[in-house]
Alpha-L-arabinofuranosidase B (Streptomyces hyaluromycini), 523 residues
Amino acid sequence: MPVRVLRSCPPRFRRAVLSALAAFATVAALVVGAGAPEAAAASSLPCDVYAAAGTPCVAAHSMVRALYSSYSGSLYQVQRASDGATANIGLLATGGYANAAAQNTFCAGTTCIITRIYDQSSKHNDLTVEGAGGAGAADVGSPADALPVTVGGHQVYGLEISAGMGYRNDATSGVATNGAAEGMYMVTSGTHVNGSCCFDYGNAETNNKDTGNGHMDAINFGTECWFSPCYGSGPWVQADLENGLFESNLGYSTNSSNTGTGAIPFVTALLKNNGQDHFALKWGNAQSGGLTTTYSGSEPSTSSGYSPMHQEGAIVLGTGGDNSNGSIGSFFEGVMTSGIPTDAADDTVQSNIVSVGYGGATGSTGTLGSASEISLKATTSCCTADYVRHQNNAGVLSAITSSSSALDKGDATWIVRPGLADSSCVSFESRNYPGDYLRHYNYKIYRQPMDGTTTFRQDATFCPTTGKSGTGTSFASYNYPTKYLRHYNYNLYIASDGGSNAWDSATSWTDDVSWVVSSPWAP
């Protein structure tokens, strides 16, 4: 999308018999019943459900799992920095989850970026790193290790988009054009968003430029309010139909209860458009519950060009149609369909998404081993009930007890990851904000999303050693090895034992930099 002069506000073959039975059961559930549809068979994955409902997937992209029960191919491709070699990352089993261990082995001792996201459908609409467009220079690939996550009980990786990153296919097959009907969903995150244009997944122009109203039909997710009023602080699921992010036919939200998803870590975002006179928006918590419809009505009436639509059939992920690439976002899985799926099919897909357990427990706690969930407790006599947590993006020391809120307990829980700059050290990923890590900046500690840069990797890497007080563990900064993770006046810093900064005070330094690695507060 172009920059505006004015702004209103600032992740093959199964036995034929089983596949047929699964399809038949899904069709029966969709056709027969009044009320909520019967759950699909356990082997029915999103594209099986949509195919059974008569709206097959024409694009199916996922970093984390198969979207067809019969799929056995690759999910994505990585390229390593050390020699430029590439590797395809596939599945642990047909219809299963990503083989993240293959990525870890291939990328060991170097860094990797994502260079291709494979389409699991028969249309082969793969996404590659996006080239230059009318509003942005050529993009770069996302770091392959930025967004570790547990899905289906397996450690896998999502796709974390920072500004200047994006993926696209301008020569697709089967995607809706010129007013044809389509549906789409993606699983994203409400904790990694901003108000810049435009974190999109869906139908876009084939020349990477803004070619006019109605030439896009994509899900947008972020905090950008294009048409006022927007209720709450978002992020909102909106429709990027070109030259506007639409919450209704009037542009702005006509639903005052639609205040956005809030900062929930996993969100299902869904758009359906008949291409002529109707579109609908839905969202749900990808960890629990069903879908909420925030709009279902006529096409935009703010100006001409939207009824009928004029889709061109390219697929974009992470940017606007003209490569407006200032947005950030997370992507785990998403599909596009031919035709508009039934509400019953959408509900069944949402149930399947919830069933895989996005963001579930890692299965390890209380140690500095990889993927262990922990809390870090202070050892200084003043503060033995206090723990490292994030609050308003900053690292702080805070009292946490059994009666603390679930939010506070989650903010004080960390997932141990191999050090982003050195795998012999550690990095601490936020439990509540997937893909965000503790890092230092100007010696102060913050919680921030991993952007793939060398500086971030170094700033977010800490090397454990025996506690300086003789108790617990101390954590030396990777790039400032004489400075250690310290609490001072209930804020967190990297600090040396004496120095010109207040937080370098030698008083109680050995205690302040010594931590007990404990069981996590969050379940």
